Amino acid sequence: MDTQIIASKSLLQLHSQYVPKGVSVQNKVVITRAQGARMWDEEGNEYLDFAGGIGVLNVGNAQPEIVQVVSEQAQKLFHTCIHVTLNEPYLRLVEQLCNIAPIDGEKKALLLNSGAEAVENAIKVAKSYTGRSAVIAFESAFHGRTTLGLSLTSKVHPYKAKFGPFVPEVYRLPFPNLYRKPEGQSAQDFIDESIATLQRAFDTYVNADDVAAIIIEPVQGEGGFVVAPPRYMQALRDICTEHGIVFIVDEIQTGFARTGKLFATEHYEGLNPDIITMAKSMGAGLPISAVVGRPAILDSTEVGGLGGTYGGNPLAAAASLKVIEIMERDELASRAQQIGEKSVAMLSRLQERIPFIGDVRGLGAMVGVEFVRDSASKEPYPELVALISQKCFEKRLVTVKAGVYSNVIRLLCPLVITDEELEEGLARLESAITEAVAELS
After folding, report:
1. CATH class of 66-329
2. Which helix (H) or strand (E) covers residue 106, if one does?
3. Measured between alpha carbons, how far is 423 from 27 in angstroms, rounded to an integer?
4. How many C-alpha atoms does 313 have within 13 Å on its Cβ side?
5. Is the pLDDT confidence value at 271 over 60?
6. Which of 1.10.760.10, 3.90.1150.10, 3.40.50.1970, 3.90.1640.30 would CATH assign to domain 20-62+331-440?
7. What confidence tens digit (pLDDT) does each residue in 303-332 have?
8. pTM, two decimal places
């Protein structure tokens, strides 16, 4: 290989030449260094981070204490594979996760590498435990890009197109999106109707006795930061209990202080899911995920039926232990609430003078702003969001889109962002929105 030729090419040229086009990149910049909520590219330009690696960097980028524990762990033990020998970080972490997960009673935990793996294994143990084959998921959901993850995911382009056939016995129901309720219908009536739709599904779609699991995001991530109403979540819990269905709450994006609680489940009093899936900010950027749930469910498979070569890698597990310590010590859940309040206040003020802002919503520092062509039809306006994203990038603010129609800007800044950085980022966002609206009006 001629290394001189490669060295002569810019990093963006390498991306264009060697990375498949299916690997999307919203912000065409190569970041070479980051700290907290700030990032720098190969030319030394500074950016504010409002994406957090899609919700992975709640404790910030290159957090010094995490860098230290990973370095110390690397000098002791890189890898053993949990199936060959045990290692201390894995065991300490599963203990800690079982202590903090909002599930009543005893718990067990399985460590894996990604959110999609966590979802896959949660469904596996639910099927093994119940002896059933069907799974209920929801419209606008996102549960990963693996075959089972895509079967549960509800967004065709770009995720599902041309990748079928998918896993059978997945049944999809409407998610109770209050912004999209029929005009004139009360929120209570809409939620009641959504619950009735779920109950009717056992007559029209699938026998309740064949359903192994219901899986739901308490706040839809890729779906546009839509918050599940408390009464609907409690209805799911009651229905699962009644029919012996495993209730899985996907906290991959909502977990680890993002929503103003350590887990979004805690916003729903007495919810008590059977399984919670975790990933993203759990590892501060290192690949790690978990399935935490009731021992009877997680113990239902044969020995060897769960796991993977890299699951619970000592470096990632050590990082995750430090993440939990930092979040509790520095009260990052409270900080998330403050960030969310400031963000919602700014966007709500902007909504009063920009009719294209249809909805501002979220929990804690998980805030989404949905853009529509007009308030009556609520028709998605992805072209405006694309231009806003471009304007943000030009102002060196890194953002990320969401929504089935890519008409939502989601805010996922690191929770360690300073007040000054937050205010500057929100000012850049407001300027980008204002300029984009003026350009397209």
Report:
1. alpha beta
2. none
3. 21
4. 16
5. yes
6. 3.90.1150.10
7. 999 999 999 999 999 999 999 999 999 999
8. 0.96
